[in-house]
Write a structure and sequence with these properties.
The chain has 12 helices and no strands. The N and C termini lie far apart (50 Å). It is 82% helix and 0% strand.
Length: 278
């Protein structure tokens, strides 16, 4: 039974995960390195990579700030609307990205609630870079906060209160006590947030307008190239996303290993302290 279940699991993973990865890289390099590099050297593809990185560079820091603030407030304080705030943080997990994109269109589009106000000031959100960034921020909101909230709730407020009682200010307690205690969870949340920002398709597809060279991110550009039967360029760009995903996976396991090692060292600290001298 054990070998049968193990074999079934390995076969499933090989068929559903390993084989598609092999196909992606095999197709990307089917015409050699020259074909691979030519597919990525296209101006529209380069613009898609640039826009994807811009969206990630803007959305990830914003989510770090929001995630830290929300987790600190939820874990360390009691206030009205606390349950509502937790529900709102989880909203992007329960709402389809397509619906999220439609909400931005209804709000900021030409026929939306703020469409006339934005048009009068020559401000463009939908079918432009700001819409891409807003959609990316929305779908990545929960990742940092959701990694920090359980850990900060488990740690409690004793260490911060001790620091304050010894004369530390609020910001000193935050940067010297809170941040060191949550650094690995914070890094882990940032990695997941960045991975989602790079690979988001649904919400970005709705607000982008699919303007090649302007509002197409990497996932959207892959779809365009594939639909135009440009398989090598499409899979070349897909291989870049795969490499980013693999790098994210490696960083994830490294963070988990470092976090477990740190906890083990903390747990063994008292034992070393009371151990008799040799």
């Amino acid at each position: 039974m054990r070998w049968g279940l193990t074999g079934a699991a390995v076969a499933f993973l090989g068929l559903m995960l390993i084989l598609p990865l092999v196909v992606v890289f095999a197709t990307a390099f089917s015409k050699g390195w020259s074909g691979f590099s030519a597919g990525l050297a296209d101006s529209d593809s380069f613009a898609a990579v640039k826009l994807t990185l811009i969206a990630a560079v803007i959305s990830v820091p914003l989510n770090i700030i929001f995630g830290l603030a929300a987790a600190w407030a939820i874990a360390k304080f009691e206030f009205r609307g606390k349950s509502l705030l937790i529900t709102v943080i989880d909203l992007p997990f329960s709402v389809s990205p397509i619906i999220a994109g439609m909400l931005f269109v209804l709000l900021f589009g030409a026929q939306g609630w703020l469409g006339d106000w934005l048009a009068a000031r020559n401000m463009r959100i939908i079918f432009a870079v700001p819409g891409i960034v807003l959609a990316t921020v929305f779908v990545t909101v929960p990742f940092v906060a959701r990694e920090l909230i359980p850990l900060m709730q488990a740690q409690g407020r004793e260490e911060e209160e001790a620091a304050l009682s010894l004369g530390a200010g609020g910001w000193q307690a935050f940067f010297r006590v809170t941040i060191p205690n949550i650094k690995w969870a914070l890094v882990y949340g940032v990695i997941l947030c960045n991975a989602r920002a790079l690979g988001e398709f649904g919400a970005v597809s709705v607000v982008s307008g699919h303007i090649q060279g302007v509002t197409n991110t990497m996932p959207l550009q892959i779809e365009v190239l594939y639909n135009e039967y440009k398989f090598v360029p499409a899979f070349a760009m897909a291989s870049l996303l795969v490499l980013m995903a693999l790098l994210t996976l490696v960083l994830k396991h490294w963070i988990e290993w470092r976090s477990a090692r740190s906890l083990a060292q903390i747990g063994s600290g008292p034992d070393r302290a009371i151990a008799p001298p040799r």
